[in-house]
Amino acid sequence: MRKNIRNLCLAGTVLFSVNMTGQAIENLNEEKKNELAKAEPDIVKTTIGELKLPAPFSTESVSKESKLVEWPEGEMPKAPAGFKVTKFAEGLEHPRRTYVAPNNDIFVVESDDAKKSANKITMFRDKDQDGVPDEKYSFLKNLNQPYGMLVMGDWFYVANVDGVVRFPYKEGQNAIDQKGEDVYALPAGGYNHHWTRNMIAGPDNKKIYITVGSSSNVGEHGMEKEERRANIIEINPDGSGERIYASGLRNPVGVDWNPITGELWAAVNERDKIGDNLVPDYVTSVKDGGWYGWPYSYYGDIKDPRWANDPHNELVEKAIIPDVPVGAHTASLGLTFYTQEAFPEKYQNGAFVGQHGSWNRSNFAGYKVVFIPFDENGIPQEPEDFLTGFIASDDSSQVYGRPVGVTTLPDGSLLVNDDDGNTIWRVSAE
Predict the structure, then answer these.
(1) Residue 123's closest CA among 176, 57, 46?
(2) Contact 158, 144 (CB under 8 A)
(3) Could you say which of 52, 195, 202, 406 would form a disulfide bridge with 207 (CB–CB 3.0 to 4.6 Å)?
(4) CA 406, CA 369: separation in Å to the nearest integer?
(5) Domain-by-domain residue ranges, the chain?
(6) pTM above 0.85, yes or no
(7) Dist. CA 126–CA 106, nearest whole Å
(8) Taken in order 268, 273, 274, 278, is the CA torsion positive or negative?
(9) Residue 189 vs residue 392, higher pLDDT
(10) 3-state SS, residue 223
(11) Tens digit of each residue's pLDDT (9 = 90 or more) over 114-126
């Protein structure tokens, strides 16, 4: 059997002026798919070990949407022994992500696709730090598919689908009524395949990093529609100084700083429609100037067959292999490094990943929170399940919820946003 071994390497800086052109073949004919399916598997060397990737179309691409059902009486998600799961909040409208401000106020963005989005932020305050919110406020309304939130200085920033806006903010205030200031416009509209715009402050609070997913699966609508997309963008707090920090990332959403190495890490959703096990989503360190392959290749220089007529070899050769594969079609969206001390030692400086769950797979994948241990040098190890039980019946396509955002509270417990279940779960050490 042929083996394609590709070593982990740092690609050279990809310039903003790279010519990203062309259009993928949206539908290959059956003869071509059958031919591709006969190819040898690819084997790549990631940071956590070798990964065997099947040939494209070696399994059929299927659509299997989940249906939400109620939890049975007394049932809830399952955490490992030594942990307790409780409800932190319920009755929300698609609570997609939670953000904890420097003063420990807890902000929840309630957002969904354009037709169903509540477009608001709710604030909770846990005054006695017992894991049960004492106060709840309607903090900010009339947003536009918000996702990322950030307090920086005297400003409260929100990343809407079409741009970053900021509002005057004083620590401890319960609501914002003022009109926001447009800071930085973001690409939106059209097919708009990935609408969540996350953001994080740099370690020195002098820069903001914004995630922007692609507008398509694999560039099938033309790369002219992907301008400034599939990137992590760096700006100054006033919106100036735009710079593409990293590119070729199909849909980066969760971002956090590795507490040991200081590197930016991201959870990234990979492409669909070439089989059950292609292409695995991943969690990876994000190199400044790094290029990660989308849409021309995946996991380094494995070429996407839909670009066979226009392969962009010069970019394929530069593509970085991501660090940690976390399963194909898992929709791994949430990411947080655990820097508290309430959980056992093995969790210190590791990463929790919220997996929203598959739609393009014959059997469900994701629908859980996984944990990635990191060693004392900040190097990732094999992922393991942490919070499970969200799948009610794979055969009936039923689920109890879809975990997304993961956030650590000041008391060391973990909040898990279940946006379809309209609930935020709290996991604490017993």
Answers:
(1) 176
(2) no
(3) 202
(4) 8
(5) 30-429
(6) yes
(7) 8
(8) positive
(9) 392
(10) helix
(11) 889 999 999 999 9
